[in-house]
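Pipeline run #58 for the internal structure catalog. This entry was flagged by the ingest filter as a single-chain record with no existing model, so it goes straight to prediction. Upstream metadata was stripped on purpose; only the residue string is passed forward. Reviewer on rotation: M.T. Logging verbosity set to normal.
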Amino acid sequence: MQMSRSSAIRVVSPDDSNTPAPQQRQHAHGSAEVVAEISAGLLAARPHISPKFLYDGLGSKLFEAICELPEYYPTRTEAAIFARHGADMARAIGAGAVLIDLGAGNCAKAASLFPLLQPAQYVPVDISRDFLTEAVSRLQQRFPEIEMTALGLDFSNGFALPDSVRHGRRLFFYPGSSIGNFSPEQAVSFLRGLRDNAGADGGLLIGVDLIKDSAVLDAAYDDALGVTAAFNLNMLRHLNHLAGADFDVGQWQHRAFFNEEGSRIEMHLEARAALTVRWNGGERQFARGERIHTEDSYKYTRQSFVGLLERAGFSSAQVWTDPSNWFAVIHAQVTPS
């Protein structure tokens, strides 16, 4: 998940009259915990920022645009699987479940399944609260018969569902291969948390990106129009807002590539020149070419991911794929204790 159009930074002496004014720092709008998390990542030996910070309001809209790109196969491939096998999934799941949509975004994927699943309650969850609120407001007008409870929260480190979410028949819906943002061990831990929240009669419907030719993967995360680059670079604007940082977006560029040994796509932001970044309570000097790791997207085989589900406490997995075996949608049930 192109290269920024900005030119390289010219190195000048302090008394050079053409020296650009430093980037204006903002007030930190994030909580103390958020600022501390961002600071810890920027100060790490290998600087990194959680991919959840890609998704402010603009980031969410940019990701919507990415999903329409010809290079970005996951969205259309997954949609084709739902269109072809949705009735089979509905029979496996049964009507009347509590549909808990993780990383709901514009809620379009879940909404396409409403006629088949007929959920008793729809619970979209997303870190971008304002974007989610607007999406659910529009969706409620289309489906007034479905109870909807929107949750604007960060679920990446675990969460407990509020009492407003019904108990019984909970189905966690996690499409789009977002599980790939976690390492395999982190994914097991995360899925165990879902199992605990699902209850004894709960389940999971999840999208998983499968291993394929690296050229296909590289193009999907580094598109010709540069939309993914804009998406990645927008994180810096978000960090400025949250942590009161002074990132200059023009001094950074997008890098993405498939790490074959790790079976993952990696996304980074790379400094175009030596520079210093300051934020609320900290600063760091970056060398030219130094990178901030912003996202991983792990790829699996069918067998390896089913094994991961079993380790997390799910069983009876049913797998649906596209004809090219590029993507899989898997339904699994909580393993009886």
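catalog note: Residues 1-21 have pLDDT under 50 and may be disordered.
catalog note: The longest strand covers residues 252-259.
status: ready for reviewer M.T.
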